[in-house]
Each structure stands twice: as structure tokens, then as C-alpha cells.
Amino acid sequence: MAKVTVLLCFCILAVFGSVNAHTEKKKVGIYELKRGDMSLKFTNWGATLVSFVLPDKNGKLIDIVLGYDTIKQYKNDSTYFGAIVGRVANRIKGAQFKLHGHTYKLVPNEGKNMLHGGPKGYADVVWEVTKYQNKGHKPHIVFSYHSFDGEEGFPGEILVTVMYTLLAENQVTVVMKAKNIGNKATPVNIANHAYWNLGGHNSGDILSEKIQIFASNYTPVDSDLIPTGKIETVKGTPFDFLKPGVIGSRIRQLPKGYDINYALDGVHGGKIRKAAVLQDEKSGIEMELSTNAPGLQFYTGNMIKDVKGKDGFVYKAHAALCLETQWYPDYVNQPDFPQSIVEPRKNYKHVMLYKFSTH
Description:
Blueprint: E1 3-7, E2 30-35, E3 38-43, E4 48-55, E5 61-63, H1 71-75, E6 83-85, E7 91-92, E8 96-99, E9 102-105, E10 114-115, E11 128-133, E12 140-147, E13 158-167, E14 171-180, E15 186-187, E16 191-193, E17 210-213, E18 217-219, E19 232-233, E20 245-246, E21 259-263, E22 273-279, E23 285-291, E24 295-299, E25 307-308, E26 314-315, E27 322-326, E28 341-342, E29 347-358
Antiparallel strand pairs: 1-2, 2-3, 3-4, 4-5, 6-16, 7-10, 8-9, 11-12, 12-13, 13-14, 14-29, 15-28, 17-20, 17-22, 18-19, 18-21, 21-24, 22-23, 23-29, 24-27, 25-26
């Protein structure tokens, strides 16, 4: 039988230092979802995915996401390992935007720009565990967070939930929702920032893995990785993965590696469709990702530098990759990009579906 094991081994937040008044009384723990040979562990610090264990083609259990051994390390993390990021994921130019005639000044945390919701975004708050199922065919856990009006400069009061569910046949869903309970419209773009290495988190780099991205176009960026506003074809560029390709085959054509948003094909009415397929030849593990979001940020861990991770393993550049389904970066300042503005009493829903197999 599937089960959820709760290991409250990290007790109260006071052990790790003070936090703001919204979170200081909440406990931080480690939670496990398990079904068959697949096991996922989380912490409610940032609604973060801590580990993802499943068998490789030889039946050996391996952990395929980067992470840390302790909550204290997650609190001091600057890489967003496994975290939920928001209120607006990715970059916002000049840490400001206009909405309904008002200009909103945000809190910058990457030079003059904002990244992943600011210096204290959703990755750095304590979420409440509001539901979990420890028996049955669909083990799941729900993290909830009350995001207040003015948080990091964003207008509007929203209730955010993230639900992870283990399904049959090695499938996992991540459903991110937000309900605007205030009286101001607000942008919402919540993303999952897991770092994947299908050879195992301690196996080295991901340059030999193969990826296919179902996107004919991408959004070019400036020197600050802010989209220029254009949408261009991937053909004839290092970004073309319409057919499966080895990640390292063209990565040297880029200054540091991949960190780019793809405009996914087949965006019609928010329907879920395939976004990417990732394969590791050595482990034999294949991961297929589907989503209802219009964009996908492909990031090859370019900025990872000697980060001490799980079991003391030291992660280096390209130790893993991120596949962050999302609305395009800086869409709040780009009216021609797909928009995700949640009006009062309206809802936001972002779905990811992972399917795993071995070959």
C-alpha cells in the first residue's frame, strides 16, 4: 500500500533562526510520498522537492534531483533547489510593471531586476501542509500559502496551493493553484524549480543526456537574460531540440549554457500537452513532461559552483537541468506575450504531468 511518512526531524523554525511573523510559529518538516519503488520527499520550506527516488533500468534505486541534507541548507540556498517559486517566476525587468493604470515597484534581487518573486519569494517561506493521503491509490500532499497584498511589492491578496500526487505507472502530477481573494488584480506565475539529473544527483553532469523540446520558437534575451520582446524560430540555432539531441552537443556555442524560455507548440485553451522528453542512456530513465503552460525555461545549471549537496556530494556547473513550465519571463512588461493576470475572485491553475519509464 502507498503511504505518506512524516518525519518531523527538523522541529521548529527557531532552530534555524527567525523568520517573519507570517511563518515563525509554523513547523518545518520532511514529508514522504511513496508508491511501489518510487519515493518523493518534500519540505514545507518553500514547498520544496527534496528527493525523487526510483529504479533505473537495472533495478537500482537512484535519487534524480539535486538537493540538501538539512533544512538549514535550504534556508540558505541561492539556487532554488526543488523549490516552488513565485509570485511571478523568472525575471521582471527593472523590478516593476504597470497594471490597470498603476505602476508597481517590486523588490529587486538580481541587479536592478527581480528574479523568482524577489529576495523573499515563495521559495523562502514556510508553507502549511493542509492535506495528505497516506493510503490508497493516489498518495498526495498539498502545501498552502497565504500571500498578502504588497508582498515583495505585488498587488493583491491570494491563496496559493501546490499539490503533488503519485499516480499509477510512475506518473507524478504537480498542480499549482491561486485564488485572488483581494480587490486588486495581480500577475501570478508559479513554477516548480526542480533540478534533474536522470543519472542520479551524484553522477556528474547532464551534458550527455538527450532532450527533446516541443517548441518551434523561443524568446531571445538581452545581456541580463530579459526577453527582448521578440519570438524567433529555433531553426538554425543551438536552441533547436525539435528532434532529440545531446545537450552538450551545441552548448559551447552559448556563453555559459542554456537558460532560455521556449514558446511551446500547441497552446490552445490551456490544454495539457507534451513539452519535453529527457533521457539518460546510462540509467535508462526517461522523463516525459506535459503542461498547460505556454512556456518552458530550459536551464542547464550554469551558475552552480561547488555547492555541497546531499550526502556531501559537491555539485558543479551542469550538474543538473531545470525544465520550468511557466508563462514567459517579463510577460508583465510584454503585452504581446501570453498573459497570466488574475483578477479579483478569479483563479489561476498551472499543471505539470511527469511520466517516467526505463529503456
